[in-house]
Amino acid sequence: MNRYRLVHSTEFVYDGPVSESYNEVRLRPIHDDRQSCLSFRLLTSPASRGTSYRDAWGNWIHLFNILPEHCRLKVEAESVVLAHDAPEPPGESLPLADLNARREELLEEFYDFMAPSSYVPFLPQLGDIVCAAGKRGDGSVGGFAQAASDYIHENFSYVKGATHVNSSIADPLALLAGVCQDFAHVLLGVVRSRGLPARYVSGYLAPENESEPGARQEEVIGGRASHAWVEVFLPDFGWIGLDPTLGKPVGLRHIRLACGRDYGDVPPVRGVYKGRVGQRLSVDVLVRPALDGEGRELLSEISEGPHEPPQVTERPQQPGQQQQ
Asked: Rounded CA gap, 205 and 207, in Å?
């Protein structure tokens, strides 16, 4: 099945009334040659009207404001996505020994995806993984990238709570543990420090059939919720996806929401509000096939949305509101 129904619901509950809430969200799936966003709508409660635009990376950003006092804010995005088969990576790619000669050319086109960033500084500890991946690979840039992803999958432990949403790669490198966001950032650091362009991808992993051997493991590490992985640019071929968390190929079940230099470019929901109160956050993600076994639409079988009239047109944002 490669057609999916997505419902992503984020709710903030405040300890008292707040006002002048300004928000941006990145929840509209990418539409390109690898996947088609067949439908999308964004609902907010309290109801709002918003605007949208595409950022420098091609992601849809939705903006909305809620000025009156309110004690809750719910943002719900519903999408239907059709995933397409990606081109098979080449059997042979550029020899790793020839990569340095292409560095200037790659920097000119992909500087933002090769330079260090807030979450992905170039730390000395990355050198050990670069060396290990170089020895494990087949001597090509594609083999190096895959070996680096495999190394992280095999040597880092998935531990919820070991890091936090603002952790740079310093934390997972010290702990040899983290979550999918951390593993993606570490892989970005390894391949970028070796001279390959790479970008952070946020999205979802559609669950496997529960009878499959890896289904329960995937549920634990994000298979039924938000997920993150990496796309690496191979000279003379293009972008390939690598998932160091799962240790499996990126395929039809990986649904892309947004991409950027690191997590800081792609948070699903981000905003500020006026008020001296605390907040509680809950996030619920539903990913399911959009067709049943007989090819019928399942769109009516969705969780209930806000009762107030919709409207916003194309948005994105993520846990992490601030107060002013």
From this structure: 6
Distance CA 315, CA 243 (A): 26
Classify residue 319: in a domain, yes or no: yes
- The rounded Cα 242 to chain-centroid distance in angstroms is 12
- Per-residue model confidence as pLDDT tens digits over 158-182: 999 999 989 999 999 999 999 999 9
The upper half-sphere exposure of residue 220, i.e. CA atoms within 13 Å in the direction of its Cβ, equals 10
Angle subtended by helix axes 141-155 and 180-193, to nearest 10: 140
- Cβ–Cβ < 8 Å for 187, 198: yes
For residue 167, tell me if it sits in a domain.
yes
Domain count, the chain: 2
Length of the chain: 324
Co-location of 150 and 238 in the same domain: yes
Please indicate, yes or no, whether the overall pTM of this predicted structure exceeds 0.70: yes
Q: Does 244 share its domain with 104? A: yes
108 occurs within a structural domain: yes
pLDDT (tens digit, 9 = 90+) per residue, 273-287?
Answer: 999 888 999 999 988
